[in-house]
Design brief:
13 helices, 9-stranded mixed β-sheet, globular
Amino acid sequence: MAEVADLVVAGGTVVNSGGREMAHVVIEGGMIRAMVDAGSPIPAARQVVHAGGRLVIPGGVDGHCHVAQVTGRYRTLDDYAVSSMAALWGGTTTIIDFGIPRDDSESPLQAAHNKRELARVARCDVALHGSVITWDDTVPKQLDELVAMGICSVKVYTTNRATTMADDDTILQVMHAMARIGGLVYIHAEHDPIIIDCARLHAQAGHTSIHDLHRTRPPVSEETSVREMLGMAEYTGAAVYFVHQTTPGAVDLVQRARDRGIQAYSETCPHYLAVDDSVYATADAALYACCPPLRDATMVTQLRDRLISGRVHTISSDHSCYDTAQKRERMDKIQRMPHGLPGVETRMPVTYTVMVRELGLPVERFVDVFATTPARINHLPRKGVIATGYDADLVIVDPDATRRVDGGALHMGTNYSPFEGRELAGWPETVVSGGRVVLSEGTFDDPGPIGRFLHRTPTGDQTPSTRQATARV
């Protein structure tokens, strides 16, 4: 270790998922080089950030973001510069996006290459998931090439026919291939025939607007799809990760599968823990268009219970940056409007407020779902922990400070937030990304396009001693 470090985060309460300690965090070359007891003198450094009376947690890992996403006739309004800066404003130092083919003319491999090229302007570290919509004889080789690129997870959709949906035959072959590779299958699980039929029945009664969204995509459609996908996973031996789960029944299905030895994980999102379907009766209903939809207040409470019990493994934003004009353009036809909510910047305060302030869970549990477990599941061996040998991604939080959400003052490239007006705790006070202080006391220091593309491997030792290959995005 050099005599003078680059940076020391001094005297804070360092909280990891496994416990906490009072420590000085010594940073050199973008890495954590030492943890020094806070009772000792502050090590010499070119820059010292004093964190006394504050929590110091690992930088967030958001495993589910959609950046510059094209779906049908809609494109999200952000790019990697915007979304990565918003992530840093919100205490997230690593985002994982998706290379989803725009249409039949774009292959999974082309979609991933295109996203990686777009990501060159990222301010924080970036990884990618692949995506397969249609299986053909070229896909196995493409999946091998994705792994060679450092992409070891693939997303499939069980709904959204004519855009992103993969049929059961395709999903089964993807699972076989990913089991062979040792990768992970991300699954958007909603049963498409049930949704199509339910929407048809409501349309016959004249119920086709945004106010009917939650009725046309019922909980049974999610749970039926989860059950089917778990059966395929058990048959193929694939590891599966269910995105944005909204019902206690879906989470329980995953837990029962885990009890049988299936490698399966449950993710939910802040909006499913903090907002219920009563918003669909309001004039702002379009601003909450997402799939799956928000659930009723009883299910929100039951989903929170699953979070308390540890059955929810990660909380991701499912960030999709549409603005109010896009959202309101087709309020009359829920099938034709853009679905998804902006949230990469508010994931940390909403999750912290729900878990720590409202449910009384320890900060260690928040750290686990916000950073540590997303890093572990997604094979990011130097992320999600504050310890020697890990990347110097840290967030300093004043546990007593609160702030009201003002969507117009956020940085996500949209003009609203689904949490507008909420008083939230857990906002970042200081953010260190790759050893650089990028946010301090409300001032953002744009580091420029320095984000790295994180090359992930599907199997092998995932301790920090393992070399995690990185390259400029």
